[in-house]
């Protein structure tokens, strides 16, 4: 082309001045250290709460997929169904609090996840692999909230 314009990709006059790169503005979107772990803890406690709620309701209704002739340390399947239902409902509420970064949610989440972990260990006779899986979720939630769930720094 003769009018001084070049087509994109076509060779043309090269500038010898160094090009300035725009600085990325990370400070506006920077997350505090451990923020991902806290969000992950919220997701895990929501998953554990959902599983506890579903299996708690199933235990209250005396569903047939639980291990037959199960003997508990104390009480019966219906009692543990109610325990799991309440713990699951509390876990789901705490997950919402963790996601909105409510101050009460961190330690409440640790307490509820601890109670859920204990309940899962006592619930092992009914559904062993599920109990161990939810127990593992609870341990990860406790770790994430204790190690990374500190107070957010004021800007």
Report a brief summary of the structure:
The chain has 155 residues and is mainly α. Helices cover 58% and strands 0% of the residues.
Characterization of this structure:
The chain is mainly α and 155 residues long. It has a domain at 42-62 and 74-148. The chain is 58% helix and 0% strand. The chain is built from four helices and no strands. The chain has helices spanning 35-60, 77-99, 103-122, 128-148. The termini are far apart. The mean pLDDT is 80.
Which SSEs are present, and which pair or pack?
Elements: H1 35-60, H2 77-99, H3 103-122, H4 128-148
Helix pairs in contact: 1-2, 1-4, 2-3, 3-4
- The shape is elongated
In N-to-C order, the SSE pattern is HHHH
Strand content: under 5%
Which runs of at least 5 residues are low in confidence (pLDDT < 50)?
none
Give the beta-strand count: 0
Described by strand count, sense and barrel closure, the largest sheet is: none
Mean pLDDT over the full residue set: 80
- SS-based class: mainly alpha
Q: What is the terminal-to-terminal distance? A: 54 Å
Helical segment count: 4
Give helix % range.
Answer: 55-70%
Q: Roughly how many Å is the radius of gyration?
A: 26 Å
Main attributes of the structure:
155 residues; 4 helices; mainly alpha
